[in-house]
Design brief:
3 copies of one chain form a homotrimer.
Chain A lengths: L1 H23 L4 H23 L5 H4 L1 H16 L1 H6 L1 H25 L4 H22 L13 H16 L4 H22 L8 H5 L1
Chain lengths: 205, 205, 205
């Protein structure tokens, strides 16, 4: 119950990021709703297709449509207000990231994938939406360029997959995974932790 | 029989739109054929993957390859003539839109999805090809930005899903759904009906 | 055994092309690894999803992650050296192309698809990685614009599917298919063989 609420909450925040980007790119109302939907559910759909969970949860249950369309409408009519709520949105997004990492990994493990692969699919659940959002609006995906975002998700998902493999109790392992993910994401946001990019083409291009 | 002919006809017209765009973007012959193929079948493939109809009809039957390749060749060698046929192509495209909306929704219902989700998948059948065409040629998908296109498809698909749920007879419901879709699309083309886009970023960007 | 080694070798080379492109686009380390992974395995994943081989081999076996991540690290830290190795990389890429064409076609045939479709899926195995790499870094896919690349793959895959259909012995048919693909690719690289592009928009745009 709490779990479902968190899952829908995370979907909502991811969808808001899609709606905001759609508005910025001057899509019409329908386009904004599509990008909101894609940002909210594309990661979970990709994971479900890859593990053979068909139809994907985000297609089978209408509540994912409802929540992403609601987010799209909020984003469409309240872009100005959202822009001013930057910090809460970032914090909620970080929470959604951790949640998707944990739930995505767990679902992949439940479908019998090995722990390493399950952690990658957990991360894919987190970043798929942002990649779809950016491609639909013709941006190089942010997640490929900046900050500890996917890496935070991967660390959380990986620690969880490792803990399950070692037979540790589930709840503490999941809490630790989510916490590690959240810690890394917050360090990136507020301390500027990030990965290097290659020096090679910096001067030549 | 009539049904199959219409289905292939719609695929052909959608593929023509892909071929024309490929030519405009100066792709080579192979590239034009790929974009024609994607424009013709990507919507149906996405729908089939999501409902678990694997392999997708457009992969399992060679006639979809044949018709899209034929459209690609026509588009490659006769771009100038097609450009002059704007009105008939638009009308045929509108007919294809209605047909895909109805057949896509029906297939999703047949796979046991609920009516609301089935209508969304019907719409996805219509717009998937155009989205694939635009992404492969690096354009923000037209369908996200302009005119009543997806919305016409959604209205037709939705009315049909609703009629089926209420137990109304199938043929009249499908005719009504297709007619509603066609009406909205033609109003958009000839009366300029469209959705709003957000005012917010108009001045600030 | 030899087969597996060749398969992983081809995946590695394709992944190198992704890593190099990621570095050129100034992605961070994570982004480079993602694009390397996508370039290495996207073609095989697309094929497996379309034929219903779920989870796709590239997801089910961790060695595909290992080899693409290794390629990504090499690409990230040794871009300068790779740029100087242009000829060997092109040759290895041509070898990978032939191998993917043959193995992709064989897998599609094994899943009961008809020979024509199987050849198309064999080609898709070859080009899917490059398309994913280019879309993630916002380029119009090279394979749609230039050189005999996909066509070489299609010729090899098609000749093989034809040979199997005629009941010819498997090994010679596969060797012939791979050889035809390699020949066409090398002619394109060193003799400039290519497909035409349409003249129509050359002057008007």
């Amino acid at each position: 119950m709490l779990f479902d609420a968190l899952d829908l909450g995370a979907t909502f925040v991811f969808a808001i990021s899609g709606a905001t980007q759609g508005v910025r790119k001057r899509l019409d109302l329908f386009g904004v709703l599509v990008v909101a939907w894609a940002a909210g559910v594309a990661g979970g759909i990709a994971r479900d297709l890859l593990i053979g969970a068909v139809p994907p949860a985000a297609i089978a249950h209408w509540r994912y449509f409802a929540i992403t369309i609601a987010a799209g409408l909020v984003g469409f009519f309240a872009s100005a207000q959202i822009a001013r709520l930057k910090t809460p949105v970032q914090l909620f997004d970080a929470a959604g990231l951790c949640l998707f990492a944990v739930t995505g990994t767990e679902k992949a493990l439940a479908y019998g994938l090995n722990p390493f692969v399950a952690a990658v699919l957990g991360m894919m659940t987190c970043i798929g939406g942002g990649v779809a959002r950016d491609l639909l609006t013709l941006e190089i995906p942010t997640v490929l360029r900046a900050e500890l975002y996917a890496v935070a998700a991967l660390a959380g998902a990986g620690s969880m997959a490792l803990g399950f493999t070692l037979g540790l109790p589930h709840i503490p392992v999941m809490v630790f995974g989510a916490g590690l993910c959240l810690f890394l994401r917050l360090m990136s946001l507020y301390r500027g932790w990030r990965l290097p990019s290659s020096k090679y083409f910096k001067e030549t291009d």
